[in-house]
Design brief:
The chain has 366 residues and is of the alpha/beta class. It folds into two domains: 176 residues, Rossmann fold (3-Layer(aba) Sandwich); 175 residues, 3-Layer(aba) Sandwich (Rossmann fold), CATH 3.40.50. A seven-stranded parallel sheet has the order 3-2-1-4-5-6-7, with helices on both faces. Strands 10-9-8-11-12-13 form a six-stranded parallel sheet, with helices on both faces. α1 links the parallel β1 and β2. The longest helix is centred in the first third of the chain and has 19 residues. The protein is globular.
């Protein structure tokens, strides 16, 4: 069977969306005639990001389980039933040859529908701790692509292939981009630079720590590229106006991440699956501050996978305010440590993840 139609389902965060887009782009690169349709969750960021990447998407009314306030889940079963019905209708109408679930709210109903309709489906698990949907449906999947070793505790070992996480192709080769990046960010090419990223919504503990440490960065002669998230941008800009000698590019969101990584000597980041994969692929040393409320604390597990290889430094969220800035400056001043972290980080990168996933799916669907 040659693949002509593909559904990719899931989303909710950039960590789910961008690997999905990378897989879709790889399918189109192999055969531009392949029709790729995304199925996401209504109101979530995939409904904006996927069309911007040039792909069609249909939203399901599905919502997640509110673990903090269980009484708010009274609509969950209704939305789930509605989403299952709509997912079945999409599958019947589109008639995909294969379905790929990347995690997130919409992935469950779509993969369940594929299972019932006997359509081959695959799972791409980005994190080192598998999500509930993927764990439940893993035994039914044709194959499962994982980003970290040791995932047999979640999935049947015979169905697992370690591929790494697919990332944007412009991050695979950063050579020659630093000069352009310095012009783009209005920063000096030869000044030590820290890239601060906390995901599209920002990371409040990281942002507050950086805010409190602006004077220390100014004194240390370090310049910053600071992605604040949408809720902290104005506060950051107001604070920076008091430090005229501190060079800093600040923005709610950075689309030109290849330039950001090319410019960075050190990255300060949450430990979401996508961020960790991008850091490794670009071979950058990093300070990782896992989001403590992530499902099953998977960000801490992601960070530990790098720490065990001496490829990153982990700082807990609760200690970020007191230690993040001082650790960042100390690390920047230790050239041997920076070099070792960078070398080990680069060694963990997997630049051909999307290509490997698509090739394996194609092979298994012959």
């Amino acid at each position: 069977m040659s693949i002509k139609k593909v559904i990719i389902s899931g989303g909710g965060t950039g960590g789910h969306i961008y690997p999905a887009i990378a897989i879709a782009s790889e399918f189109k690169e192999i055969d531009p005639q392949i029709d790729v349709l995304f199925v996401g969750a209504e109101g979530k960021m995939e409904m904006e990001k996927v069309p911007k990447a040039g792909f069609n998407i249909i939203g399901l009314p599905v919502v997640g389980i509110n673990r903090a306030h269980l009484w708010k889940n009274f609509l969950f079963p209704i939305k789930l039933i509605q989403s299952l019905y709509k997912a079945f209708a999409i599958l019947k109408s589109f008639k995909p040859d294969v379905v790929i679930g990347v995690g997130g709210y919409a992935s469950g109903p779509t993969l369940i529908g594929a299972w019932f309709r006997k359509i081959p489906f695959f799972i791409q698990e980005q994190n080192s701790f598998a999500g509930i949907t993927n764990k439940v449906l893993g035994p039914k999947a044709r194959h499962i692509f994982v980003a970290y070793p040791g995932m047999s505790k979640f999935f049947p070992s015979e169905k697992i292939t370690l591929t790494g996480n697919p990332v944007r192709k412009d991050l695979i080769d950063l050579s020659g981009k630093k000069e352009k990046a310095s012009v783009f960010f209005s920063l000096k090419e030869n000044i030590p630079t820290i890239l601060i990223i906390g995901g599209s919504q920002g990371a409040r503990s990281i942002n507050l720590a950086i805010l409190d440490g602006l004077a220390q960065f100014e004194k240390a002669g370090i310049q910053l590229i600071w992605q604040t998230g949408i809720h902290f941008e104005n506060e950051a800009k107001n604070a920076l106006s008091k430090f005229p000698n501190l060079s800093c590019f600040v923005s709610a969101f950075i689309y030109e991440m290849d330039f950001a990584y090319a410019m960075a000597d050190l990255v300060v980041s949450r430990a979401g699956a996508l961020s960790v994969s991008e850091i490794c692929l670009s071979g950058k040393p990093s300070l990782l501050v896992p989001f403590p409320n992530a499902a099953e604390d998977h960000q801490t597990e992601n960070a530990k996978s790098l720490v065990m290889e001496n490829a990153a430094i982990l700082i807990t969220d609760i200690k970020a305010k007191d230690t993040l800035v001082s650790t960042a400056i100390k690390t920047m001043n230790d050239k041997n440590l920076l070099a070792k972290l960078a070398e080990n980080s680069f060694g963990m990168g997997r630049p051909k993840a999307a290509q490997q996933i698509v090739e394996l799916i194609t092979e298994q669907c012959k």
